[in-house]
Write a structure and sequence with these properties.
The structure is a single chain. By secondary structure, the chain is mainly α. It folds into three domains: 223 residues, MFS general substrate transporter like domains (Growth Hormone, Chain: A); 224 residues, Growth Hormone, Chain: A (Up-down Bundle); 94 residues, no CATH class. The chain has 26 helices and seven strands. It has a five-stranded antiparallel sheet with strand order 2-1-5-4-3, with no helix packed on it. The longest helix has 44 residues. The radius of gyration is 32 Å and the shape is globular. The N and C termini lie far apart (90 Å). The N terminus and C terminus are likely disordered. It comes from Ibidorhyncha struthersii.
Length: 721
């Protein structure tokens, strides 16, 4: 009994020694709530940011889909359209440094929300000229317009037609010029795109850093990968929206569509390009709303409260004691500085050594040069791909945008994913990443070379590509527009109102075809007694013609199918090398210079590729024009007809030349890496371990799957086709 009582005493005394700590339960409860609050907040931000990425990718790709529509609507050359396209990058560059530096110190979600409003304002501004510059006027002879008056196309007698149908008099030109003042409203499109670039600037740097700061460390890469994946969906919808709007007439809702004498297959057709910008602007407004209600800070996860750096960063920092000591001294100096001016001065003094260190890295410099030249090639190719398909294969704008959105862009997304999957599956080291990136570019441009054989011949256009007697055109185009068969007609060489003769030849106008009579109105007009139409087969017999140009040759639809297949495979092949190249960039620079190196890389791509490429590609394409349109006030308008063969050689040739030069730089990168890699590294690589970019350890260069998800983005990825 005594023993038993002692045991009981000890039992109760032990229980009294260990009292219940209610505060611990309270702290656990609060930590649990904080964790749920953190996860909930970051997921809301993730959803909002994904929607913003979708919105900006949609509006950017929609602009690409309306290049030819804008060119025709404002009657401007391709080179000027290239300037409009490059204005987005200019706007982005104007404030990127300010946003990157000051944005992190301010309310990041609200800055992103403000950026969405600016982006939507720019998108709306692009559409505004439609409501102020009057109705679209295409060239049509009066006989094709619904009218009770029958007018002969071949104006042998001036009294049989009103003055407006003849060569414009000076009085008429001056009157038209007053109304044509809206032709300079393309400037508003340029300014709107510039505003889009300014508004888009804070989305990526502030959005990604916000996720990285407040997400659980192991989830951060996954969240960023989700955002980038959603960004790929945007261009698909952007081009599909472009396809839909291209089928609708530009002045839909403002004019009676029954009176429109052209169809969406006509070269003068302009779709409702402005409608898509209103839709894209509204989506941008909706995307920005949630950010005004998100907090400036979220509760940090428990595993990141005691450390301002991630575990991956700490691995890099502990590898190099010298760099660690240097960084520690810089931090101590910054902490001791009481004024912001001293901190700024300290940063400024560190800038030049960092820049020297970065540009002293041969791998970084060579890869930067390779990327700049390759993006010149790809951005130029993507910008004018819709125009190339329309002019080379005779496809409509609607079908072209549909094909690009539904076939090419998914191939790009699959290629990006495949590149990351290959890196993870085969545990490829930095040297292997360089080989994969080089192989992707080499085989991609090799496939592109085959497209030279998949073009269509020029359509037979009397006076431009063939003579009125059926021979190939070799003389001056303007002089060749006139022939004996139309010498008795009062025709203008500036008109562009094509008709298709029953002999399969296109004529620039019914007048130049020598047509004496017409029957019907609008799209159903038929021209008779066309003296030039009968010339090719039997000069003594006159024939008929219908409104609109003749279709391309019978082989052209088959060539277009071959082009699509090769284009999709090429898009996939080139995209496979995107992720390995990005990994190569990250692994061959010192850890503390990563952000700076990526900033310089992005800046160089935008300034040296994003801005100039559309301009000089446009200038080169303009040199292949056979027939320029004329503005009402005189001067050259948009191109009406291109030389198909010359366009193919210029467009594909320029792309391939730039791509080939970039491959030489990629070979140089691989050579430098091989030279710097030790035999031990290559042995380890063969065994499935990580190689190195220099003399660092395997641990420093290991690429895990989470990091691959995080780094599957590079500039202009959404539109690399």
């Amino acid at each position: 009994m005594e023993i038993s009582s002692k045991e009981n005493t000890n039992f109760f005394s032990n229980n009294t020694i260990l009292p219940v700590d209610r505060s611990s339960f309270k702290s656990e409860s609060s930590a649990s709530k904080e964790k749920h609050s953190c996860c909930g907040g970051i997921k809301i931000f993730l959803g909002a940011l994904s929607f913003v990425y979708f919105a900006k990718a949609l509006s950017g790709s929609y602009l690409k889909s309306t290049i030819t529509q804008i060119e025709r609507r404002f009657d401007i050359p391709s080179s000027l359209v290239g300037v409009i396209d490059g204005s987005f990058e200019i706007g982005n560059l104007l404030i990127i440094i300010l946003v990157s530096y000051f944005g992190a110190k301010l309310h990041r979600p609200r800055i992103i929300g403000a950026g969405c409003l600016i982006m939507s304002a720019g998108t709306f501004l692009i559409a505004m000229p439609q409501f102020f510059m009057g109705r679209y006027r295409y060239e049509r002879f009066p006989s094709t317009v619904n009218s009770t008056v029958s007018i002969s196309p071949c104006l042998q007698d001036k009294s049989q037609t009103p003055l407006s149908a003849l060569e414009k008099s000076h009085t008429k030109i001056n009157a038209g010029c007053e109304k044509e003042a809206g032709s300079s409203m393309w400037i508003y499109v340029l300014l709107g795109n510039l505003l889009r670039g300014i508004g888009e600037t804070p989305i990526q740097p502030l959005g990604i850093t916000y996720i990285d700061d407040y997400a659980i460390e192991e989830n951060a890469a996954l969240y960023i990968g989700c955002v980038q994946t959603v960004a790929i969906i945007g261009p698909i919808f952007g081009f599909l929206l472009g396809s839909l709007c291209a089928k609708l007439y530009v002045d839909i809702g403002f004019v009676d569509l029954d009176n429109i004498t052209i169809t969406h297959k006509d070269v003068q057709w302009v779709g409702a390009w402005w409608l898509g910008y209103l839709i894209a602007g509204a989506i941008s407004v909706l995307a920005g709303i949630p950010f005004w209600f998100l907090p400036k800070h979220l509760p940090k996860p428990e595993n990141r409260k005691d450390s301002s750096t991630s575990s991956e960063q700490s691995k890099f920092i502990t590898e190099d004691n010298k760099e660690q000591h240097k960084s520690y001294q810089q931090v101590k100096i910054a902490e001791m500085a009481k004024g912001r001016s001293l901190v700024f001065l300290s940063s400024l003094l560190n800038f030049l050594p960092s820049l020297k260190n970065l540009f002293g890295n041969p791998v970084y410099i060579l890869y930067l040069c390779a990327s700049i030249i390759q993006f010149n090639s790809l951005i130029g190719m993507v910008t004018y791909k819709p125009k190339y398909i329309e002019q080379q294969y005779g496809q409509t704008s609607s079908k072209t945008n549909f094909v690009i959105g539904l076939i090419n862009i998914p191939a790009v997304a699959l290629g990006i994913f495949s590149g990351g999957l290959i890196m993870k599956k085969f545990r490829i080291n930095v040297l292997g990443a360089a080989k994969l990136s080089l192989g992707s570019s080499f085989f991609g441009y090799l496939l592109l070379l085959s497209l030279f054989a998949m073009g269509c011949e020029n359509s037979d256009v009397a006076g431009l590509t063939v003579s009125y007697y059926g021979t190939k055109q070799t003389t001056d185009y303007e002089q060749a527009l006139f022939s004996e068969c139309n010498s008795g007609c009062l025709c203008s060489k500036n008109d562009w109102d094509p008709i298709c003769g029953e002999n399969g030849v296109t004529y620039i106008s019914a007048c130049l075809a020598g047509c004496q009579a017409s029957n019907g109105s609008g799209k159903n007009t038929v021209f008779f007694n066309c003296s030039c139409v009968g010339t090719l087969e039997s000069p003594s017999r006159s024939s008929s013609a219908v409104v609109g140009p003749c279709q391309k040759g019978n082989e052209c639809p088959k060539m277009f199918l071959y082009f699509l297949v090769v284009s999709v495979i090429t898009s996939y092949t080139l995209s496979v090398g995107g992720t390995p190249g990005y990994i190569l960039l990250l692994r061959c620079i010192k850890p503390h210079l990563k952000s700076f190196a990526l900033g310089i890389y992005t800046l160089a791509i935008r300034v040296l590729a994003g801005i100039p490429a559309p301009v000089y590609f446009g200038v080169a394409i303009d040199t292949t024009c056979l027939k320029w349109g004329s503005k009402r006030c005189g001067g050259r308008g948009a191109c009406r007809l291109y030389d198909s063969s010359a366009l193919r050689y210029v467009y594909l040739g320029l792309t391939l030349v730039l791509g080939t030069v970039s491959i030489f730089f990629s070979v140089a990168v691989l050579w430098v890496l091989r030279k710097r890699s030790s035999p031990q590294d290559e042995t380890l690589s063969a065994n499935g371990e990580r190689g190195t970019c220099g003399t660092k350890s395997r641990k420093d260069n290991f690429v895990n799957s989470d990091h691959l998800i995080q780094t599957t983005y590079w500039p202009e990825k959404e539109t690399r086709l």
